[in-house]
Amino acid sequence: MYAAAAFVILELGSIIKEPLRLPDWTMPLIIVLLCVGFVMAVILSWIYDISMKGITKTEKIAASEVASLSDNRPQYEHSVAVLPFQDMSPNKDQEYFCDGMTEEIINVLSHVKGLKVIARTSVFMFKDRNEDMREIGYKLGVAHLLEGSVRKSGRKLRITAQLINSEDGTHLWSENFNRELDDVFDIQDEIALAIVENLKARIPRSELTTIFKHNTEKTELYNLYLHGRFYTNKRNTESLSKAIDYYQEAIGKDPEYALVFAGLSEAYTLSAIGYSSSPPDEAYTKAKEAALRAIELDNELAEAHTSLAFVKQYFEFDWPVIEREWNRAIALNPGYAPAHQWYGEYLFMMKRWEEAYQEMTLALELDPLSFIIQTMLGWLYHYQHKLDQAIDQYKKVIELAPDYAVVYFNLGIAYVIKNMSAEAIEAAEKAVELSGGSPFMKAGLAYVYALSGHTELAIEIRDEMIKLIKSGTPLHGPLVTVYVGLNEKEEAIKCLEIASQNKTNMSFLIRAWYEDYLGSNLLSDDPRFIDLQKKIGLEQ
């Protein structure tokens, strides 16, 4: 607008100069004034906007918003996302096999140094969704996408795969494989090698054996393992029970299959920390045994060390060993997102905030759409008392996964600490509803009720949990949270001591859970609480 006006003024000046007999310095003066005005126009246009509402002040964009605009743009030339393979089989009964094929190729590629490979959780967000490849590439922050399909009939396999440039949708490589089922491992390796070659990523010859190592060459066992992974990833009581059955069946056929033991350990640990109704103490013991057996069979298996660190982190207090196992797992496979995620959780429970943020950032880089990791980032803010950031992050998760109960649990606690009682109750009740009445979620709801002044409702949940404990369900850890909400210090301490003896989920024992997450100092100065922190190795 200014440039157009300036042009008109200059033209008008040149026209009227002669008739009005203006002095020679008139036009130079006009030009100088217009240049000065141009500087002012630039400054004003930076500060103000012209909108439908008139002239308004330009809103500032926060650094976090700027980051979010660029976070998902492809930043790595050597980056790829392996999209879920489609089941093209006649009976449409090979979903587990397609998912397993996808996961195995991701696993192979994640070992290639210098290659960014998006983890399973994020790519499976696009399963059965007909979305533009360029849009998917943008959302995942990768330059390349691999898509494929599987057609399985008896022992006959037809697998198609194609590598796509996500920026323009062009095909870089494609191949059809018509083989026998026994050749499935060779097909996975060929696809992985083709991707590496097309992306011009280098694999040192010394690393080829590790990258393309298979824990078994028996397709029957591999099939059972894929079933186990399929059900483990669903994370509920019924699915974890099925996963454990498949893993145990595989072990019955071959007790030397290390990867199955690692998977079995993960399933038991998930059961023990609340994803299943199985007794936590039994699940913990079995989880540790399976993880140790996996390491005994293959000390170079990243999944094995991850499983051991995972179970120890929640049920043991040997912190140097736990950290060593996380570092070992990450060294063996730097592209394994769950290891970075769980190690990050360990670090922020130790209040090592900067290191925790680095691990969470790495996990999100590898798995940008994982609502679990996104929730953990909110949790990290929450533990640092950055409640506004935590709440914003939890809301982002709800947009990604509106049925994820845990994020509503966290949101309810954050709201009640900020004295936003109505919002807190709504979120906490939603968590209980979505979880199917989980006692863990009910403990959070009771805490919210207590701090919101609904003491009678909190007491109802407290009494319900006491009855469950008397009937044999070990819920002492979550019950401490309820007692803290009700300001019942003596009962909280007694329950906490029992929880530590029962090897309850570590989250309910540490100081950070009460002081930083729940925002309560009820137990902080009690000598018994301080002694417990020393006993579990968190204080000198």
Fold and architecture overview:
The protein is an alpha/beta fold. It has four domains: 56 residues, no CATH class; 140 residues, Rossmann fold, CATH 3.40.50; 120 residues, Tetratricopeptide repeat domain (Serine Threonine Protein Phosphatase 5, Tetratricopeptide repeat), CATH 1.25.40; 138 residues, Serine Threonine Protein Phosphatase 5, Tetratricopeptide repeat (Alpha Horseshoe). 63% of the residues lie in helices and 9% in strands. It is built from 26 helices and eight strands. The strands form two sheets. Strands 3, 4, 5, 6, 7 and 8 form a six-stranded mixed beta sheet that branches. Strands 1-2 form a two-stranded antiparallel sheet. Strand 6 and strand 7 form a beta hairpin. The N and C termini lie far apart (69 Å). About 3% of the residues have low confidence.
Q: Structural class of the helix and strand makeup?
A: alpha/beta
Number of domains: 4
Shape: flat
Please identify the top-level CATH class of the largest domain: Alpha Beta
**Share in helix:** 55-70%
The CATH topology of the largest domain is what?
Answer: Rossmann fold
Unreliable runs: 59-75
For the record, give the distance between the C-alpha atoms at the N and C termini, rounded to a whole number. 69 Å
Q: Count of DSSP helices?
A: 26
Specify Rg, calculated over alpha carbons: 29 Å
User: Main sheet?
Assistant: 6 strands, mixed
Summarize it:
63% of the residues lie in helices and 9% in strands.
